[in-house]
Structures are given as structure tokens and as C-alpha cells.
Amino acid sequence: MVFRLVLGCGTICRQVTERLPERDGDRRLVITDDESVVETLREESVPARSADPSDPDAIENVDHPDVIFVASDRTDVNRAALEAARERFPAASIVAYLGGNATAADRQRFDELADHVVDPTTAMADRVIGGTAMPTAESAIELREQLVGIDGRLAVVAHDNPDPDAIASAVALVAIAESVGVDADACYFGNISHQENRAMVNLLGLNLRNLDRNDSLGEYSAFALVDHSRPGVNDQLPSDLHVDIVIDHHPPRGPVPGEFVDLRQQAGATSTVLTEYLDHVDLDFDPATATALLYGIRVDTNDFAREVSPADFRAASLLWPHVDTSLLDQIEQPSLEGETLETIARAIKNRVQRDSVAVASVGRIGDRDALPQAADQLLAMEGVDTTLVFGFADEMVFLSARSRAADVDLGETLRDAFDRIGSAGGHADMAGAQLEIGILGSADDEEEIESIVSVVEEVITNRFFEAIDSRPGVPVGAYTQTSEWLFTQRGEPEDGESA
């Protein structure tokens, strides 16, 4: 339950009041000296009281609010209301509107007393450059209340085969949960096989639990998803699982469940969002967690060169004083294994290139994290601006794509091409997918397996080229019943079913 107190109700107050989320048990109260506003608010079922918001007596008998919004149009009124509110409610989170006639002394006083200051002279500029992308103090309070309400153990689940951003985000949310007395585990399905990712976990001593599809989840009473937003999509959780918390920076492709949901698409990394929450709850930055979060931001933004926002730079500046730079150097420069070099060589040898787009199958793989490194190497070749590299492991085919073309959105391209037959997604310049080949496990001999693999390679290659050539959002059309059957069957087709 959150109690919000609004002191003064000027030009922006009504818009804010109308947008305040209403949930069962939440309370709000507006105190303003404009009786017509009080009457209007009451007609709209908003609790309001007629009083001078700058008078300390007006809040003398008010219960302790969680969030206070100082919202008169006048700077002098807001300053007096802010001073009275801070003295009366020292633990409350206060957002104060500066008003239109602030002096240097006013600005200094607002900065001293308010947790957040809304300055009309800079708000428009912030909006134009993409906004601050900071979670409000209110959302930090809501996250904390969601965590405090958990009775039992929390599973913080990263997406399958997690990357640094997902790993760091999971570890950070566990730290926040444990700070309020909730036992939690950072969990993932699949493998951590990329050399840099393994180095990050091992060198920083991060505590992660590797879940298996057959593991019972009964020991957990609550679930949080980080760096992805839907159970059963890019994780091995039941699709109908009740989710308590979702924190992600990717655009969702479907309804997002969750009691508390923060989808920050303008942030370059989920690690940025978790950094801000750590800062808001005033939790000390542990060096291992800070190093992991900074590395997660750097990887997902390609060292602040891809889909970066002001929030990413701000998060990095918060983390930097606590980062173990010597360990960060070791994480970023692991040695390449022989299998990775062999995968890169096969990608270069097997590539099929049409104009500036290169696609390569590397056949059977033991380390799926060699694929993005191979895709990066193809992208470095002259005349190539978009790449797709894929390989086979057991009954799965894994795909990794890279692009520096301004007119290509790889996340949407892979979704259009492969969402019907697997799981796909990512960013405009970096994306991936995984597809299940249902009949591969039932093949009788190596010759039959190679025949199936050859057909799958042709299907994937053609669908990717077709998706690249199609308009954004238009389904890929050249898709045969035979090729779809390859990805959906387990064993022999049933009677009457066309192969």
C-alpha cells in the first residue's frame, strides 16, 4: 500500500493526479487552497482538503505518507511547503516542482530537501533527448513493497544461457531482495559457455543456480524475471507461471504478466535499471555486483556505442567508484578456445553472401557461444554489413545475427522469420534465435541426419534472406508445409499428416 500526499495543485498537478496508479489499498490526498479545485477533485472521487499547503498546520494531523508531491505553480509556496513537509515527514520521498520564478537560493534549498526536483526550464530539454529514464522514487518504493510482501523464497530468473546483462541484473535484484529480508536465488536454465561470461561468473564469485527443466520449483513462493519479460519465452518456466516481478529493457512481443512490471525500453541495458534501483534503495554497491553491472551495460551497449541513453552513462558513473578494474580487465580479455577458432573458420568458409548480407552454417557445435563471435568476425569482412551464423546441437539449432546497416532491425527480422517455429528476438544490430528440430532425434543413421541438416540449412538461409528483403512487420511468405514440419515434429508423422 502506498500513501501519496499532494501539496498544492497547480498547472501540472491535475495531470499528475489523474495518472497516479490506483491499486487496492493505495491512498492519496490533495491539499490546496483553491476551493474550486478541491470541489472538482472530490467530484472525481479524489480525496482533497482545502488548506494552505505552505502552512505547517495543514499537515499536522496527516498520517505519514510514502511519497509527497509539492505541486503549486508558485516557487515561494512550494519552498515553504517543501520545508514543512521535510520537517514533518523526514523519511518520506519528496518530489518538488520548482515553479517558474526560482532564484539561485531557491534552487539550492530545493536540492537540499527534495529527493527529486522538477525544473520547468530543463524538463522540456530532458524530454527531447529521451528523458531521464530514471525510475521514480515511487517505483522504488513499490518494488520494495512487492519484495517485502513475499512470504518464502524468491527465484530471480534470467533468460536461457544468460549474457552478462541478465546475470548482473539477477545478482543485483537478489541483493535488493536480501536487503529487505527476503531469501532469493539468481537462477537460469541452459549453459554459460561464452568465455567472457564464464570468466565474469568465476572471477567475481557470483552465486548462480543452474536450473533443469525437470527441477521442481516448489521451494519458491515467488518469481522474478530479469532481462526478459514472459515466462516460457526464452526460459524453461511454465508459460502460465504466476510472476511477481518483471524488470527488462527489451520491447515485449505480447502481454507481460507480473504484479510489479518495469519495462524500460529507452535504457540500453537491464543492468542500468537495476543500478538505479540499488541507488534508490540506498544499498551499498558491492564490488563484485558493481563490476558485473558495469560489464553488463558495456556489453549490451557495445561499450556505449549502441542504443545508449543518458541513463546508461549515469549508471556507469554511479558504478565506477566501486568497480574492481583489475578483474574487469581479466573478464574482457579471456583466451579464445580452439573450438571457437574452428567455428569462426567454418563460418568464413561456408558463408553464403548476397550483396552485403552473409549467412553461414557451422554444422555441429559444442559451444553455442562461439556463434556470436563468428557472426562478429563475418561482420568485419569487407563488403558485409549484416551476418547470420547458425549451428546444431542435439535437436536444436541456434542462430546469432549482427548488423551495422541503418535500415535493418535484426530483432524484428529474426522474429518475422522464425517466431512461428522457435524463439527469436534481440536488438536492431544484435539478435538471436533458437529452433527445435523435432525429427532430428528420430533419425536412424548419420546419412539421414546429414540430409535433414542440409534441408534445415537451406530453410534457415532462405528465410533469413527473405525476411531481410521484406518490409518491416510483413510476415515472410515463402514458407512450405514441409519446412514447418521439420521444426514441429518429434518422430514419425501421424496417419494422414503430410510430411
From TrEMBL:
PANTHER family: BIFUNCTIONAL OLIGORIBONUCLEASE AND PAP PHOSPHATASE NRNA (PTHR47618). It comes from Natrinema salsiterrestre. GO terms for biological process: potassium ion transport. One of its GO terms (molecular function) is nucleic acid binding. Residues 5-98 form the RCK N-terminal domain. Residues 155-297 form the DDH domain. Signal peptide: none annotated. This is DHH family phosphoesterase. Pfam families: DHH, DHHA1, TrkA_N.
